[in-house]
Amino acid sequence: MGAITRSAANNFTTGGVILPAGINDTTVASISQIENLAAGEALTFISEHTASDAANIQITSGIDSTYPIYMLEFISMHPATNYTDAVVNFSIDGGSSYSSVTKTTTFTNAYNYETDSSANFGYDTNRDLAQSTGDQKISTENSADNDSRLSGRMYLFDPSNTTFVKHFLIQTVTTADPGDNVEWQNHNLVSGYCNTTSAIDGVRFKFVSGNIGDGKIKMYGIKDS
Fold first, then answer.
1. From start to end of the chain, where are the E strands?
2. Would you tell me how many other CB atoms lie within 10 Å of the CB of residue 16?
3. Handedness of CA 26, 27, 32, 33 (dihedral sign)
4. Residues 68/75, Cβ–Cβ less than 8 Å
5. Are the C-beta atoms of residues 139 and 153 closer than 8 Å to each other?
């Protein structure tokens, strides 16, 4: 037992912290089956933004050269107005303006009704952009019903780069009543790029019509591998 104790002690610092060499298949059973053990270190929480009957959510701090990828999570976003799309836009001047970043995007839409009476998947030409500075739609016909919500995620790649365009990917899911008193599940995929070599340092989210009734956005930074 003494030899085992001495061997185990070699895996700790004097402060009691386990050394990297102390975590392996010998010291922990079947550790090879644990995927991405250190993945948590790659994802860093930066900020949280909550809206309650607010015109929009703007993130103008923390988007810089610290991380090559930024991930934003939309959590239970809820519009105050019926049948309205959610939109995003970008800023290169710290949020002073959201009308100077040209974007080209794609938008696909898939939905299914609770009654299974209608379902569809397809490209939506009414919600994409072609070299436009306008807001990019990220969801379809959200409703103000109390049980209707929008959730999703956006990735913004290398926003501080001053040589290349800035790519982004967005995925949202919406449970809503599209206007015929039948709830549906809507899945939207948006991709595109900000056609600018200026650094993106601000992002704004809102609904086309009315305020954000309530909702939350969390932002994380993703480190290089």
1. 43-54, 57-59, 69-79, 86-91, 103-113, 119-123, 136-137, 149-157, 166-176, 184-194, 202-207, 212-222
2. 6
3. positive
4. no
5. no
The residue with tokens 């839409």 is 109
Interval 24-48: pLDDT, tens: 656 555 555 444 444 455 899 999 9
Q: How far apart are CA 129 and CA 51, in angstroms?
A: 27
Q: Which amino acid is at 60?
A: T
The one-letter code for the residue type at 16 is G
Higher pLDDT among residues 209 and 30, named by residue: 209
Are 70 and 176 spatial neighbours (Cβ–Cβ below 8 Å)? no
Q: Model pTM?
A: 0.80
Which domains are delineated in the chain?
A: 1-34 (no CATH), 40-222 (2.60.120)
